[in-house]
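[worker-b] picked up task from shared queue
[worker-b] task type: protein-ligand structure
[worker-b] ligand name resolved to zinc ion; SMILES cross-checked against name lookup, match
[worker-b] sequence length check passed
[worker-b] input payload:
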Amino acid sequence: MPQSQTQTINNNKIVITGIHAFYDNYIWAISSSGTSSSGNKSIALVDPGDAEVCINYLQKHDLVLNNILITHHHPDHTGGIARLKEYCAKNQWPVTVYGPKNENIPFCDVKLSEQENLNNNNNSNNSVYLKELNLTFQVLDLPGHTSGHIAYVNEEILFCGDTLFSGGCGRLFEGTAEQMHTSLKKLASLPGSTSVYCTHEYTQANLAFALSVEPGNKELVAYNAKVAELRASNIATVPSSIALEKTINPFLRCYQVEIKENAETQTKCNLNTELETFTAVRRLKDNF
Ligand SMILES: [Zn+2]
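[worker-b] inference finished, payload out:
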């Protein structure tokens, strides 16, 4: 059963529901009290990798799809776009697909980048206004997991795809450790109350690794116990928050001496900078 959170942004009540897809993906459905031109409630979907689960959700709740937000090009985030476009066309719903400027996203209508570029044919926007939801997002460039990965953020909520997970971060498929470190620092600088909507339920496995590099972190130990309880009842551990992640996520805490020393012991290398520790910790996680 999908779980929902209600967030109020500028007096606008937003409901965000995680639609389960594949083994451990969440496709986030965003709705508000507003309605589409047909009178039904309009939603936006974030990273719909699987169209069928989304269409089932739309039908079950009598919803209209008008906006699709994509964070990066991996198939488990983009695989449903073509079928959803077709479904919207059949229903005569206008639908806009937003995606990163620097990646090849199928059916992408609006290309986005943190660095707005209005030169000639290279148009891109650095913010998104979803009129059906009366909701605005700023775009952040987050290279690391893929080279053109973006996030959508406003005063309250962050959709960060596969960059920041609860207790972990995305694998480095295209970017460098330095790029990912910079991207995560950008997210860590957001207000602590920002809700973090990542795309995978990886928290429990991430915390097992986190404890291997920072066993002395009492908040981490306590959070691990809480997550074990939630997962035993099949309850989602996301959204998280920036404040929580700064307390328990080793990839945001590589300045901690305990993490550096454990990474040095495990890699048998001297780690002289925070970036070197981050790089070592990311490598350790790959082999955990
Ligand atoms: Zn990915």
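[worker-b] attaching auto-annotations
[worker-b] The pocket of zinc ion is lined by residues 72, 74, 145, 162 (CB under 6 Å).
[worker-b] releasing lock
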